[in-house]
């Protein structure tokens, strides 16, 4: 199916169901929250007779200003509902323990589709955000699909955060045209950017600590390890601690940067980021996955952490030896 045919199929499927449940991935980012809430708003305003719920097992501190989820419902409700899963590559990452009871699953995603699930899938892995897909959906059916300032703000928040304020690969003319269409609904970008990008004083201190103590390998892989003691010292949530990946993104010549964060269960979360170099194959080697320049994985201990750092160093050495023009 081409882009228009799949959007038509998505619309037809939504029309079929009186009850719709929307879920997104665990440990949500702005794109996951924005997609779920933005899509919920579109369906509510376009089809006022339908019951639309956004259900998630976990919450997001950072994006709670966009809105929160609805109460969990019974198996019986799931059986007669369409479950729309947004921004979630694999079914084990769906933040909804009841997902398996859904009458039908529609997957809308912009991740590489390694482990397909769902009865209907709309996947475009070249898109800069999942919200970009939903903005495309919204603008493709004028007069049928509707939103308002709030709904547009949710989608815009997802587009802006997942594209790194329109800086990451995947940002194209369509991205900006669709973002422009959302702004036309009256998004207050001053307030939105303040909600998204202001940090507390204590968090700036944590940032300073990471910049002070981070490491760099011979070929230029920057890495930091935020252990439990550091998390305690700065009074961080896991989500806040995980933000450290972005602190290392602007080091010239350091095309790969890795953040290791202690998980409460004793494992170590890995966030892999890069420019020019592809890192998802490296993440795959450690049981993770993700995008070419933004992937994730989990390692068991410090020995595995060191092995991953060594692999990243070799990958970057090889890249630098065989490519020109990187920065
Ligand atoms: P994160 O560092 O958690 O923001 O993840 C970056 C990207 O990698 C996201 O698009 C995630 O969907 C993906 N990702 C993170 N962790 C995993 C994992 N363990 N397995 C597969 N994909 C992952």
How does this structure look, described?
This protein has helices at 3-16, 30-46, 75-79, 130-140, 149-162, 173-183, 189-197, 201-213, 228-233, 238-242, 244-247, 280-285, 302-322; strands at 19-23, 51-54, 81-86, 104-109, 120-123, 215-216, 222-226, 256-262, 268-274, 289-290, 294-299. It is an alpha/beta fold and 327 residues long. α2 (30-46) links the parallel β1 (19-23) and β2. The longest helix has 21 residues, at 302-322. The two termini are 39 Å apart. The protein binds adenosine monophosphate. The site of adenosine monophosphate has 12 residues, from β10 and β11.
Q: Any chance you could write out the topology, listing elements then pairs?
A:
Elements: H1 3-16, E1 19-23, H2 30-46, E2 51-54, H3 75-79, E3 81-86, E4 104-109, E5 120-123, H4 130-140, H5 149-162, H6 173-183, H7 189-197, H8 201-213, E6 215-216, E7 222-226, H9 228-233, H10 238-242, H11 244-247, E8 256-262, E9 268-274, H12 280-285, E10 289-290, E11 294-299, H13 302-322
Parallel strand pairs: 1-2, 1-3, 3-4, 4-5, 7-8
Antiparallel strand pairs: 6-7, 8-9, 9-11, 10-11
Helix pairs in contact: 2-4, 2-5, 4-5, 4-6, 5-6
Adenosine monophosphate is lined by residues 89, 111, 271, 288-291, 294-298.
Question: Gist?
Answer:
This protein is an alpha/beta fold.
Going across the major beta sheet, what is the strand order? 6-7-8-9-11-10
Distance between the termini: 39 Å
**Share of residues in strands:** 15-25%
Structural shape:
globular
**Main β-sheet, in a few words?**
6 strands, mixed
> Which parts are unreliable, with pLDDT below 50 for 5 consecutive residues or more?
none
Return the string of H and E elements.
Answer: HEHEHEEEHHHHHEEHHHEEHEEH
Q: So how many helices?
A: 13
Radius of gyration: 20 Å
SS-based structural class?
alpha/beta
Instruction: Determine the fraction of residues in helical runs and give it as a percent range.
Output: 40-55%
DSSP E strands, number: 11
> Are any ligands bound, and if so which?
adenosine monophosphate
Write down the overall mean pLDDT. 97
């Amino acid at each position: 199916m081409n882009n228009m045919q799949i959007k038509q199929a998505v619309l037809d499927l939504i029309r079929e169901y009186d009850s719709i449940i929307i879920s997104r991935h665990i440990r949500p980012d702005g794109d996951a929250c924005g997609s779920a809430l933005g899509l919920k708003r579109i369906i509510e305003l376009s089809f006022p007779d339908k019951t639309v719920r956004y259900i998630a097992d976990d919450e997001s501190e950072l994006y709670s200003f966009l809105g929160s989820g609805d109460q969990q419902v019974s198996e019986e409700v799931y059986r007669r509902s369409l479950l729309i899963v947004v921004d979630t590559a694999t079914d084990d990452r769906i933040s909804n323990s009841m997902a398996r009871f859904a009458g039908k699953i529609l997957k809308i995603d912009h991740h590489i589709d390694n482990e397909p699930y769902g009865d209907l899938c709309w996947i475009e892995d070249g898109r800069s955000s999942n919200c970009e897909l939903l903005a495309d959906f919204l603008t493709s059916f004028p007069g049928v699909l509707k939103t308002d300032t709030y709904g547009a703000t949710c989608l815009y928040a997802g587009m802006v955060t997942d594209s790194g304020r329109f800086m990451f690969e995947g940002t194209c003319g369509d991205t900006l045209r669709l973002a422009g269409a959302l702004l036309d609904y009256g998004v207050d970008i001053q307030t939105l950017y303040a909600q998204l990008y202001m940090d507390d004083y204590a968090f700036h201190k944590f940032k300073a600590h990471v910049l002070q103590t981070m490491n760099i390998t011979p070929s230029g892989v920057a890495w930091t390890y935020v252990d439990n003691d550091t998390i305690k010292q700065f009074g961080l949530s896991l989500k806040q601690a995980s933000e450290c990946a972005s602190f290392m993104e602007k080091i010239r010549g350091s095309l790969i940067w890795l953040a290791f964060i202690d998980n409460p269960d004793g494992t170590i979360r890995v966030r892999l980021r890069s420019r020019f170099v592809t890192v998802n194959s490296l993440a795959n080697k450690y049981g993770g996955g993700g995008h070419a320049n933004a992937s994730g994985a989990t390692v068991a201990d410090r020995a595995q952490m060191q092995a991953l750092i060594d692999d990243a160093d070799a990958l970057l050495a090889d890249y630098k030896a065989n490519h020109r023009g990187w920065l």
